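Tutorial, part two.
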Amino acid sequence: MAERQRGDRVVFERGFPAHLMGIDGTWRRNCLVEDISETGAKLTVDGSVEGLNLKEFFLLLSSTGLAYRRCELAWVNGEQIGAGFLKQSDAKKKATRRSGANNQIIEV
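Running the prediction step on this input gives:
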């Protein structure tokens, strides 16, 4: 699985306790962070991930949920999953375009 990993990784010998949470907050699972880098992490999930919407989810790194990363599923191998970290998207910014002869900016 090393071929899937990019960047310098920090490996936790015993795993670092954390939580996965659905993007909509409808589910939560305990997990261990096995290793982590700037771009993602390898996680061992406590319990089945079958039936969970793992397309996007949160990795909660603190018990209060104040330290977290938004993730997308990279791979699944039994109880282990690969999480790719999502960066803040420019999609949140309103798209603009110029229209007509007077070059008005129209928000879409």
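The chain has one domain: 2-92. In part three we will examine how such features are distributed along the chain.
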